[in-house]
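Curious: why this fold?
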Amino acid sequence: MRTALTIDTEHPDRATKNPIGNLRAILDLLRERGVRATFFVQGKWALANPELAKAVVDEEHLLGNHSHSHCAFENLTDEGIAAELEQSRAVLDSISPTGRLFRLPGGNGKDDKRIRDAVELAGYEHVDWTCEGDDWRGIPPLQIANTIISAVRSSIEPSVSLLHSWPDATPGALEILLDALVETAECVGLDQLDPEEIPRGTNLNNR
C-alpha cells in the first residue's frame, strides 16, 4: 500500500499558538522517520518565511505551488489565475523548481473546467487528495490521525493524504499517523507516482 503525504503550507486562517514551530516539528518528525512529503507552499508565506521554505527543500521534500495569496480561484478571471500562479512561481522557483505540482486553495474549483484550463495553460495541474483529517478545524490529534488512517486503508491505492503545516494539532496527528502506517503502508513522494495515479478532481478521474 502506497500513500503520498502532502502538507499545505500557508498563512493560518484560524488562531494557532505557534505555526512556525509546528512546521519545524513536522520537518523534524519527517526527518526522524525518513519520510518524504510534498509541501504545497503559498507564495506570500514563502516571502514571509524564506528560511523555512528553504528548509523544506533542504530536507529533500518536494515543493509545490499553492497560489500566491490563497484566494478562491472561482473569484478570479483567467488572467487573475495566471497572475496568481506566476507570482507564486517566481518566489518558489527561486528556492526550488516546482514543476507542475500545484494545489488549488481549499481544492475549490477543481471540478470547474474554466479554472482547470486556466491552471493548465499556466503550466500546472491540480493535485487533489483522497484522505483528509480536517486538522484545520482545531480537532484533537487522535481524531485527525484516525480519520486519515481509516481513509488510507479504505482508499484506492495509492492514496494522497492532506495535512496543513500551521494547526497546533498537526505534529501530534502526524506522529500517530506514521506510527500506525509504518507496518502497512509505504510513504512515497508524489514524484514516485505515475501521473495517472495522482487524483485531480472528481470530474477528471475515477478516484
Summary: The chain has one domain: 2-197. The longest helix spans residues 78-93. The first strand starts at residue 2 and ends at 9. The two ends are 16 Å apart (CA to CA).
